[in-house]
């Protein structure tokens, strides 16, 4: 291949880094996700017709269907690009569009107590998770990865922190793989806290925002409860994600003092760009929320935008399910399993104490 070929490919790349000429390669995987979405929506429609209420939402059905399909079929190379696109870019658009349904006045009305509670939860969760990991004998860098993913935003936090602390690639892969599985379990199990803990819709939204790993997973965990829970959960989660910037900076300062853990450790911190610390879809969400707060988004348009965001989220949840290999639990090891599970239980406990004990929500 000539030296000019890569330059041509780069020239055709769009903002997301996907080459324009590669768009047809997205279709096979995207069509699989759309097929799962259509089936999930159809099942929900049947539920509503028979019982008058969707006891299992299309979001959850799509995740379960994706996991079930992944268990019996490993997507080939031709499907992977489309599935990855659906799991990332599609869900980022969905989160951005959700901003049109939310007024930033809700953040202001929540007061400084909620903002302080979110920051406090992140700090306590990182500290406790790191302590649990080290007590179980995990290396310092692996402990930081697990603690960051648990406390802030799962895979995104792990991916952002890994280069600045010089983490081993195997540790990064193990942390991300387990977080993917546990994140889905959180989406499926968290709604049980509404009847078990007697939470209101607002309180449940705060709980979801404080504990669920990824922004789109917050949608999946809250949409079955109510629109209020979804709005509150998304706002809390976005504030929590914004903690990633300060956390990465702190770990970058700590990294040179961490003990070496092998030849594959890179050792020297790497600088991250602004859009690594603050993803574009968060900025898009805040921009649309600001326009809505200023009355620049017509009220008649909001229901349609919200429905579109919901449908795109179902597509992304189908892709998320297709990316989960439940057999990974047997491969990551007992110590990592205990560390991540224990860290999540601590995060849930801290969040519930803040909500019920201190009136946070």
Automatic annotation (TrEMBL):
Top-level taxon of the source organism: Bacteria
Protein name per Swiss-Prot or TrEMBL: Putative sulfate exporter family transporter
Primary location recorded for the protein, binned into one broad class: membrane
Keywords: Cell membrane, Membrane, Transmembrane, Transmembrane helix
Organism: Methylobacterium radiodurans
Record bears the keyword Membrane: yes
Record's keyword annotation contains Membrane: yes
PANTHER family: INNER MEMBRANE PROTEIN YEIH-RELATED (PTHR30106), UPF0324 INNER MEMBRANE PROTEIN YEIH (PTHR30106:SF2)
């Amino acid at each position: 291949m000539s030296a000019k070929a890569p330059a041509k490919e780069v020239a055709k790349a769009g903002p997301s880094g996907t080459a324009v000429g590669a768009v047809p390669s997205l279709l096979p995987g995207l069509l699989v996700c759309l097929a799962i979405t259509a089936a999930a929506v159809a099942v929900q429609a049947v539920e509503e017709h028979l019982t008058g209420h969707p006891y299992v939402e299309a979001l959850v059905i799509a995740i379960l269907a994706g996991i079930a399909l992944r268990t019996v079929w490993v997507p080939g190379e031709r499907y992977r690009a489309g599935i990855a696109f659906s799991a990332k870019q599609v869900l980022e658009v969905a989160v951005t569009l959700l901003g049109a349904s939310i007024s930033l006045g809700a953040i202001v009305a929540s007061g400084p107590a909620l903002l302080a509670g979110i920051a406090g939860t992140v700090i306590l969760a990182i500290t406790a998770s790191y302590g649990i990991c080290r007590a179980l004998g995990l290396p310092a860098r692996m402990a930081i990865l697990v603690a960051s993913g648990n406390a802030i935003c799962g895979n995104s936090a792990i991916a952002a922190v890994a280069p600045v602390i010089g983490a081993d690639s195997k540790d990064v892969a193990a942390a991300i793989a387990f977080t993917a599985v546990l994140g889905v379990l959180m989406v499926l199990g968290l709604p049980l806290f509404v009847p078990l803990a007697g939470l209101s819709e607002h309180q449940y939204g705060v709980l979801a925002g404080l504990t669920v790993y990824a922004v789109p997973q917050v949608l999946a965990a809250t949409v079955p409860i109510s629109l209020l829970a979804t709005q509150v959960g998304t706002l809390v989660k976005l504030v929590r994600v914004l903690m990633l910037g300060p956390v990465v900076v702190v770990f970058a300062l700590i990294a040179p003092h961490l003990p070496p853990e092998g030849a594959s450790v890179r050792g020297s911190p790497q600088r991250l760009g602004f859009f690594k610390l603050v993803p574009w879809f968060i900025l898009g969400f805040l921009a649309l929320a600001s326009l809505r707060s200023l009355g620049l988004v017509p009220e008649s348009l909001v229901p349609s935008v919200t429905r579109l965001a919901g449908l795109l989220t179902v597509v992304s949840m189908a892709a998320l399910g297709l990316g989960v290999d439940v057999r990974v639990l047997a491969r990551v090891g007992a110590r990592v399993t205990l560390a991540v599970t224990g860290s999540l239980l601590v995060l849930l406990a801290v969040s519930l104490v803040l909500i019920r004990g201190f009136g946070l929500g």
